[in-house]
Specification:
By secondary structure, the chain is α+β, with helices and mostly antiparallel strands. Among the domains are: 101 residues, no CATH class; 111 residues, Immunoglobulin-like, CATH 2.60.40. Strands 8, 10, 11, 13, 14 and 15 form a six-stranded mixed β-sheet that branches. It is flat, with a radius of gyration of 47 Å. The two termini are 36 Å apart.
């Protein structure tokens, strides 16, 4: 993954709120909505997360949507493009003002015609002197006979030309089909690609829902996309902040499409940020009854859409 450089900056909170009844904007000092007259409006300062650009409570130390520091500075892709454009403009300005004179002075003593002439000068090479071979034939000595002497003839022997060896033919093996037997045919077997299972769809609590009361019963409901097998489970994960402000996770495995959220987690969460981010996906586990986040499993589907609910 691409590394991100985080620099702490100050975010400006939005001190205007919306009426929960009609949705019109109103001042934080108004006790009633000037548009519809709705009263007892509580004000919660909100800021915009620098990572995902979603509005969250100003007291949140970690964004409940992307689990990043909302007050940190993160590099964007267009930052690099802006720096590259600035460097290109600086290079153009430098060449237009100083670069032309600098390169002109450097090439003042350069003569391209001289370089071409030196490259075209021929190089002397050693020449071998031809060797002449003279072949003289010696006549066979004459045999003494009683015949009268005759005119002697000198036989001139002409050397025979050396035979040039002929190139030997190269034997190329060929595959010949035997009568009655078919030639072997290569077959390719396609390797099947595993198709991931579709993720479940979340039902309740809805995204952004607010739950009032520490003893309120919260049931996480979702709609399965298809039936699951014997060793397949629905893995439910809920992320929140503990009382020290550190991000923690709660996991559970179930075969049903509904799961009750533990009530005792209300006292273990941060009193300033009471947001819970939950999601569901289909997994396969060899354990008989997996129950914690450390239980080994194999993901069969991508996680569902992450929803956030608030518990006050």
């Amino acid at each position: 993954m691409r590394e991100r450089i985080a620099i702490t900056i100050v975010c400006v909170a939005d001190f205007s709120i919306r009426c929960p009844d009609c949705g019109k904007r109103m001042s934080v000092d108004d006790l009633k909505c000037p548009a519809c007259g709705y009263g007892n409006v509580t004000h919660t300062p909100r800021i915009r997360c620098n990572y995902c650009a979603r509005r969250i409570p100003a007291s949140a130390a970690v964004c409940p949507n992307c689990q990043h520091n909302p007050r940190a500075f993160y590099w964007k892709r267009w930052y690099a493009l802006a720096l590259l454009g600035a460097a290109l403009c600086a290079a153009i300005i430098f060449f237009a003002t100083v670069g032309a004179d600098f390169f002109g002075a450097s090439l003042n003593g350069f003569d391209p015609l001289r370089v071409i002439a030196l490259a075209a000068t021929p190089t002397a090479s050693a020449t071998l002197r031809p060797i002449t071979v003279i072949i003289t034939a010696t006549p066979r000595p004459a045999t003494a006979t009683l015949a009268p002497p005759t005119q002697a003839h000198v036989a001139t022997v002409t050397p025979r030309a050396t035979d040039t060896p002929a190139a030997s033919p190269t034997v190329t093996p060929t595959l010949t089909q035997i009568s009655g037997l078919p030639l072997p045919t290569a077959t390719f077997t396609a390797i099947p690609t595993p198709i991931p299972a579709p993720p479940p769809e979340l039902v309740a609590p809805t995204d952004g829902e607010r739950v009032q009361g520490a003893n309120k019963r919260i049931t996480l409901k979702f709609q399965p996309a298809q039936p699951i097998g014997m060793q397949e489970w629905y893995r439910v994960q809920v992320d929140y902040l503990d009382r020290m402000g550190q991000p923690v996770s709660w996991c559970a495995f179930t075969k049903a499409s509904a799961l009750e959220f533990p009530r005792d987690l209300f006292d273990e969460t941060s009193p300033n940020v009471r947001s819970f981010l939950w999601r569901v996906n289909v997994v396969r586990s060899t354990q008989v009854a997996p129950a914690t986040c450390d239980a080994p499993y194999q993901s069969l589907s991508v996680p569902s859409e992450a929803w956030t609910f608030y518990w006050y």
